[in-house]
Amino acid sequence: MRKIFFYSAGMYSRLLLLLLLTACCSSAVLAQDSTAAADAPVAKKKQYTKNTFVANYIIDNQTVMVPVKGTFEFDINHRFGTTDHGWSDLFGIFGGANMRLGFSYVPIKDLQIGFGANNFNMQVDWSLKYAILKQTRDNSMPVSVTYYGNAAMDTRERNSSINIATTSDRFSFFNQLLVARKITEKLSVQAAFSVTHFNNVDGYYDSAKNVLPSMKNTHLAIAFSGRYKISAKTALIVNYDQPLTQHPTNNPHPNISFGIEMGTSGHAFQIFAGNYGYTLPQNNNFLNQNDYKKSQFVIGFNISRLWNF
Questions:
Q1: The CATH number of domain 57-308, selected from 2.40.160.40, 3.40.640.10, 3.40.50.300, 3.40.50.970
Q2: How many alpha carbons fall within 13 Å on the CB side of residue 209?
């Protein structure tokens, strides 16, 4: 009986030792897992650069900015006549003017859709703007990239003096890719490439009395813009637009413009002088005949008011 007892005690001792070893190994594994979990890097949420620009517009161009989701915007764009007539029409203020009223909304994050109407050729337009990339504070993304598109329709009544044969002739289109960077808290710069297309262009007679188009239907251009803050709510703004396409006749002139911007969280006001006299980008890029070398500048302003719902 004593022999059996010692055998059983030895067996129990071995089992107890095995359990202790298992517990120690498990504790070591758990400790390693806890250490690994503690050492694992915590994923940081991307922080985007704010207020590269404070408005959708920078003079005659769009900016890369898209307001936050739920923002409704009302815009007034106004261009007076050219200043080259001097005091006779008060530097264009008493001359002919172009004006546009626009409305836009941001239904989902980074996407803005809009509608507008202006008095030149009684045009109505529809627009879309989408923020593709955004500059980050850590510069993992060094620039912001945005697409802007606009389609306009000439709604004038058809008659012998208007070169409109079909409904398609009434439409023009503008597509632009914008790239911007906020360099410092005061300075932001932007470059853009655009494609303008008119379904219908005017023609002219050659020496053989053949009707030829005066311009190509598609026009390419580049633009450069800058904004420099001089106070918390005021900034200097500049813009330059350069045509790239060479047309048979009526080549559009470049645009150089400069002005001042005043803004708050709910509105922006820009007043400026430049060569572009229209309120839609396809008209400015395709039709501009104002020459800065002849002092054919236009005084204009943009007013934007935003509400968030």
A1: 2.40.160.40
A2: 0
The residues near 264 (Cβ < 8 Å, ≥ 6 apart) are: 233
**Would you state the structure tokens that stand for residue 156, as one six-digit string?**
């004038």
* Residue 60: both structure tokens together: 């005659």
Q: Range with the lowest mean pLDDT among 82-96, 126-140, 143-157? A: 82-96
pLDDT tens figures, 198-218: 999 887 666 666 667 889 999
Average of per-residue pLDDT across 95-108: 94
Q: What is the mean pLDDT of the chain?
A: 86
Cβ neighbours for 97, distance < 8 A, ≥ 6 positions apart? 78, 79, 80, 81
What b-and-e string marks burial along 193-213, b requiring 16 or more CB atoms within 10 Å of the CB?
Answer: ebbbbbebbeeeeeeeeeeee
Measured between alpha carbons, how far is residue 301 from residues 70, 75, 122, 145, 258 in Å? 26, 11, 20, 26, 11
Per-position b or e across 273-309, b if 16+ CB within 10 A of its CB? bbbbbbbbbbbbbbbbebeeeeebbbbbebbbebeee
Rg (CA), the chain: 32
pTM of the model: 0.82
Q: Which residue has the higher pLDDT, 195 or 267?
A: 195
Longest dimension (CA), the chain: 133
Which helix (H) or strand (E) covers residue 125, if one does?
Answer: strand 123-133
Candidates 283, 270, 282, 254; CA nearest to 58 is 270
Residue with tokens 């709604």: 155
Is residue 76 within 8 A of residue 302, CB to CB? The reply is yes
Q: Three-state secondary structure along 274-305? A: ECCCCCCHHHHHHHCCCCHHHCCCEEEEEEEE
Q: What is the C-alpha separation between 119 and 100, in angstroms, rounded?
A: 7
Question: Which pLDDT belongs to residue 205?
Answer: 62
